[in-house]
Design brief:
Its cofactor is [4Fe-4S] cluster. InterPro entries: ASB_dom_sf, Fe-S_L-Ser, Fe-S_L-Ser_mono, Ser_deHydtase-like_asu, Ser_deHydtase_bsu. Keywords: 4Fe-4S, Gluconeogenesis, Iron, Iron-sulfur, Lyase, Metal-binding. The chain is of the alpha+beta class. The protein folds into two domains: 155 residues, 60s Ribosomal Protein L30, Chain: A (2-Layer Sandwich); 285 residues, 2-methylcitrate dehydratase PrpD (Orthogonal Bundle). The protein has 19 helices and nine strands. The protein has a five-stranded mixed β-sheet. A two-stranded antiparallel sheet has the order 1-9. A two-stranded antiparallel sheet has the order 3-4. A hairpin with a 5-residue loop joins strand 6 and strand 7. The protein binds iron/sulfur cluster. The site of iron/sulfur cluster has 13 residues, from helix 15 and helix 17.
Length: 475
């Protein structure tokens, strides 16, 4: 299947799409294969090897616990936050893992083999699962790579996966890999960027399913914010980072109430405070992500707050939205996510959305660029203006390194989402005040991001070995 909007916006758990969602998914695939092979009953031992970035920052990113849950058969898109806590407590207490939900094995986080200095050729986020029988004979073994945004690739199937992707793209009604191709479709058909994406999505879903699915994605983003605003205290992991969103929300409700003093109506958002609302949504999503809550990868977990924050801006502060009907608001959500998704496809196709591969420019930069495109689209931008918005947002995120303190997706990640959301809004506004013509194309900036990522020292690619991660003392 070609990368689609529902691949880029998938529901999972925090704190990291590449280090939590991907490893859980890979472990769940391995557990299912064992079941399918009929070898479960013979399993006597399990070995998990984590390589490169997964080993270096896995503890802070919840990789090891995600792998345990995956091996028990849980999938990131279906597991409930309560189940996460319940199962991890049971494994810690009994020291037993229920492999594929059926075979008890003595296994826990401490049994995993961490190989931070070994980077497998395909990708820095590698993991190998091996099970053996009582005599030590290997029953099954598989290596997977978590390549960003929750996507996984099995070792040895990289070319086949790429070929399948290429073939499925050719079958799409309006296939595109580059912004130039996307704009060409717009020129030829007279359609907008979100329409091109919608037509391709209709290849695998009905129009109703697409609309319903995208509105569901937005509802999960809203639920994530609502849950986060009810939680207080410090985030897990030992950095003692305090949740700020609940206090900010109380303050904003007070300061942003109606001028006539009529209560603290949540539906009234004083335009004077648009920036504070955008900051609040980004913080709320990323604080929830940092605590392992349910989030939508957009396109990754570390960058999950940017698109909800900018979409919130579109719904509450964009011109003409004051008296919009529910249907109009739903249209905005669908159009926004489709346009953002189209730009996400470009990053996935030509570069990477993985912090471990290209640094934070691939995560926060891509999300900011996608959000800028979504906002420009719903504010009436032409395809050229939308492409310009996406280009501006990425241009000013180039070179952004990934250096999370303690390997936790907290500092600088949480605030960085708020800053990148503001950049996206500014990028969209700048593009909308132009006529779409500009010096640097989106394709050029995407290739630059990829090349910059290649040149970046591995210290700055989700290893927590450089930058803030080493210059700030963990308390
Ligand atoms: S610094 Fe950026 S890429 Fe790295 S973990 Fe944080 S959000 Fe993700």
């Amino acid at each position: 299947m070609a990368v689609g909007v529902f691949d880029l916006f998938s529901i999972g758990i925090g704190p990291s799409s590449s280090h939590t969602v991907g490893p859980m998914r890979a472990a769940a695939v391995f557990a299912e294969e064992l079941k399918g092979l009929g070898k479960l009953a013979d399993v006597a031992s399990l070995r998990v090897d984590l390589y490169g970035s997964l080993a270096a920052t896995g503890h802070g990113h919840g990789t090891m616990t995600a792998v345990l849950l995956g091996l028990e058969g849980f999938h990131p898109e279906r597991i409930l936050p309560d189940e996460v806590e319940e199962r991890l407590a049971a494994i810690a207490e009994t020291g037993m893992l229920q492999l594929a939900g059926a075979v008890p094995l003595p296994y826990g986080v401490k049994d995993m083999v961490l190989r931070p200095l070994t980077v497998l050729p395909r990708h820095t986020n590698g993991m190998t699962f091996t099970v053996s029988d009582a005599e030590g004979n290997v029953l099954h073994s598989a290596t997977f790579f978590s390549v960003g945004g929750g996507f996984i690739v099995r070792e040895g199937e990289e070319d086949a996966a790429q070929q399948e992707l290429e073939e499925s793209k050719k079958e799409l009604p309006l296939p595109f890999r580059t912004a130039a191709e996307l704009l060409e479709h717009c020129r030829e058909t007279g359609l907008g960027i979100s329409d091109v994406m919608r037509i391709n999505e209709e290849d695998s879903r009905t129009p109703g399913e697409i609309r319903e699915g995208l509105l569901h994605i937005w509802s999960v983003m809203e639920e994530c914010v609502a849950t986060s605003l009810k939680r207080e205290g410090v985030l897990p992991g030992g950095l003692k980072v305090r949740r700020r969103a609940p206090d900010w929300y109380d303050r904003l409700k007070k300061e942003s109430s109606r001028p006539d003093g009529e209560g603290q109506d949540q539906d009234f958002h004083d335009p004077k405070y648009w920036q504070e609302w955008v900051n609040l949504i980004a913080l709320a999503v990323n604080e929830e992500n940092a605590s392992g809550g349910r989030v939508v990868t957009a396109p990754t977990n570390g960058a999950a707050g940017i698109i909800p924050a900018v979409l919130f801006y579109a719904l509450h502060f964009a011109p003409g939205m004051e008296n919009a009907s529910q249907e109009d608001r739903d249209d905005v959500v669908v159009k926004f996510l489709l346009a953002a998704g189209a730009v996400g496809v470009l990053y996935k196709e030509q570069a990477s959305i993985s912090g471990a591969e290209v640094g934070c420019q691939g995560e926060v930069g891509s999300a900011s660029s996608m959000a800028a495109a979504g906002l420009a689209e719903v504010m009436g931008g032409t395809p050229a203006q939308v492409e310009n918005a996406a280009e501006i947002a990425m241009e000013h995120n180039l070179g952004l390194t990934c250096d999370p303190i303690g390997g936790l997706v907290q500092v600088p990640c949480i605030e960085r989402n708020a800053i990148a959301a503001a950049k996206a809004i500014n990028a969209a506004k700048m593009a909308l005040w132009g006529d779409g013509s500009h010096r640097v194309s989106l394709d050029e900036v995407i290739v630059t991001m990829r090349e910059t990522g290649k040149d970046m020292s591995s210290k700055y690619k989700e290893t927590a070995m450089g930058g803030l991660a080493v210059n700030v003392v963990e308390c």
